[in-house]
Amino acid sequence: MDIAAGTSIGAVRAALPLDPLENRILLCHATGLSRTQLITRADDPLDAAQAARLAALVRRRLDGEPIAYIVGRREFFGLDFQVSDAVLIPRPDTELIVELALERLPPGGRLLDMGTGSGAIAVAIAHTRPDALVTALDVSAAALAVAQANAAANGARVRFLRSDWFQALADGGVADQPVFDLIASNPPYIAAGDAHLAQGDLRFEPAGALTDHADGLSALRRIVAGAPAYLAPGGWLLLEHGYDQAAAVRALLQEGGFGEVRSWRDLGANERVSGGRFGG
User: Fold this and answer.
1) H helices within the chain, ranges in order?
2) Has keyword Transferase (predicted)?
3) Are residues 148 and 51 part of one domain?
4) I need a surface site. Which of 70, 75, 184, 278 has the fewest CB within 10 A?
């Protein structure tokens, strides 16, 4: 869309075609103004550079690109996270696995986040619990770079390791910390060919972080099968999964020798996280 230089911020805001929240976010990003300044300086005119930046941002959003990728940031668990198209956009429902992990992690506990992506789970836990020893793995070097930047920006102490699931651990990559008190993961769990992959924000997110290119359970199977070798007695495994996968994941956990198996519901009342306790 065309946005004329010299038009007041207030008038532009009222004319933008997006929902009010997105209008505000893009205006703040294009002008460098805060939310409060958009109100107190509503009569200020946009200069030519600001108008051009805003028009480009709005065009990208109208083409379907997620707001988080456009502005390069997303809030998660009260923290500010850098995001790019190398990682999934952190979502409020994933805060559930953070809350469950914090409830179960003992003082000075050792936690492993598998497939960390932006680092949302690992960084949120390490920030909240600076006593914890947090390790985060991802097979993607680009994702690890984003996660490391987020840990640094939020003052979170996290050890990052490039790994195809447990492979780096099996190769001795964490020799001083062979077992963990809790393993958490939000792995790819959308089945290949699922219609949702071609809809909304998912069209722009990295496919390898969304789908296992199989039945949606292959990564979950691999984690459940491998976790016992790296869990301390009584350690917990917590897994985020699809809204319709809870029963299947509980069965995997029970078959894998986990006890106290159950599922927890997300903000939309869907069973979103399942977990169990191993041994002890």
Assistant:
1) 9-15, 20-31, 35-40, 48-62, 67-71, 95-104, 120-128, 141-153, 167-170, 207-210, 218-226, 246-255
2) yes
3) no
4) 75
Whole-model pTM over 0.85 = yes
- Give the number of C-alpha atoms closer than 13 A to the C-alpha of residue 207, restricted to the C-beta side: 11
Number of domains making up the chain: 2
Place of tokens 């769990």: 189
pLDDT tens string 158-216: 999 999 999 999 887 666 667 999 999 999 999 998 998 889 889 999 999 999 989 99
Task: Report if residue 149 sits inside a domain.
Answer: yes
- Which residues form the domain of 185? 87-278
Annotated binding site for S-adenosyl-L-methionine: 115-119, 138, 165, 186
Q: List phi, psi (to 5°) of 115.
A: 75, 55
Binding-site residues sit at: 115-119, 138, 165, 186-189
| Cβ 183 vs Cβ 235: under 8 Å | yes
The residue written with tokens 């191993």 in the block is 278
Residue 266 lies in a domain: yes
Task: Round to whole Å and give the CA distance between 59 and 264.
Answer: 39
Q: Residue 263 contacts by C-beta under 8 Å, 6 or more apart in sequence?
A: 246, 249, 250, 271, 272, 273, 274, 275
